[in-house]
Task: structure prediction
Amino acid sequence: MVITVSFVVLFGLVLFFLLRSKELGGGAAFTAAGFGFFLASTGAAKPINQLTESLIQAVSQL
Result:
């Protein structure tokens, strides 16, 4: 768990700086994919899934 959380922080910071400096390329795509992969294995996965499902339901009712 400790390693997973540290990878989430690492990938999050790298992604933040890549987006801020507008360096969007293959490296940014890899970083975003890695960030999502490691984030999915943390405790944040369930609330993120619930939020996504709620947004999809709200949009479909419009």
Remarks:
- Helices lie at 2-20, 26-40, 45-60.
- The chain has a mean pLDDT of 76.
